Amino acid sequence: MRVILAEDSILLREGLVRLLAEEGHEVLAAVGNAELLLKAVAEDPPDVVVADVRMPPTHTDEGLRAALEIRRRRPEVGVLVLSQYVEKRYATELLTGESEGVGYLLKDRVVQVDEFLDALERVAGGRAAFDPEVVRQLLGRTTHTDPLARLTAREHAVLAEMAQGHTNAAIARRLHISQSAVEKHTNAIFDKLGLAGGGEGYSRRVLAVLRYLGS
Questions:
Q1: Measuring CA to CA, which of 49, 88, 159, 182 is 20 to 30 A from 152?
Q2: What letter does residue 138 receive in the DSSP assignment?
């Protein structure tokens, strides 16, 4: 796949460039700030952008705002955002967008190469990829709401896996249950959350759940 990187840490940026090249991916550009990121995407749109949330000059939300702008201008470009910590406001702002093909990973996840590459491929393919810790904290923030409190322990586990962007088949493998059981739990989750009439696409269902959890 064709990738553009935006990370102000030279060490991490160069490490990602080398990793992606070794995996056979083409790195179109590797930049250190949001302005250069937007310019690079405009000049040669990639399949996916990997961007740090916090970049110069203020190191607050430049990377996130650039990611949102890319999704607005070019919804076909996947965006995988990296963050040092779980920043719920930023995660919610990204996850409640209309576009598909988004992800939010903690930087610690990058060192787990297989998980990082899997997330990158999911985002590039128009699916979702959310860090388990991000999902855990978003879920935990809304456990006081009645609909979520109605979920069984198994349904809660399925929801957490679904929110990370895993397919039903992958959830079945990860939870050691049948795919038909996953489908049953998924239908129950959407019924209880009032989302049974949501979008038909898998990624839209994931985003609908996260939009609800982030509200």
A1: 88
A2: H
CA–CA separation, 208 vs 160, rounded Å? 13
Determine the pLDDT at residue 60: 83
The set of residues, in sequence order, having a beta carbon less than 8 Å from that of 77 and lying 6+ positions away, is 41, 45, 46, 47, 48, 49, 70, 71, 101
Domain 153-214 has CATH 1.10.10.10: yes
CA 54-46-98 angle, 5° bins? 65
111: CB partners within 8 A, 6+ apart: none
Domain ranges of the chain: 2-140, 153-214
The overall average pLDDT reported for the chain is 82
Taking Cα atoms as reference points, which of 8, 20, 87, 90 lies closest to residue 51?
A: 8
Residue 26: the pLDDT is: 97
Phi, psi of 51 (to 5 degrees): -135, 140
Residue for token pair 């609909």: 147
pLDDT tens-digit readout, 81-127? 998 877 766 666 666 665 578 888 888 888 889 989 999 998 999 88
Considering only CA atoms, which of 162, 94, 165, 169 is closest in space to residue 128? 165
Closest CA to 62 of 95, 37, 80: 37
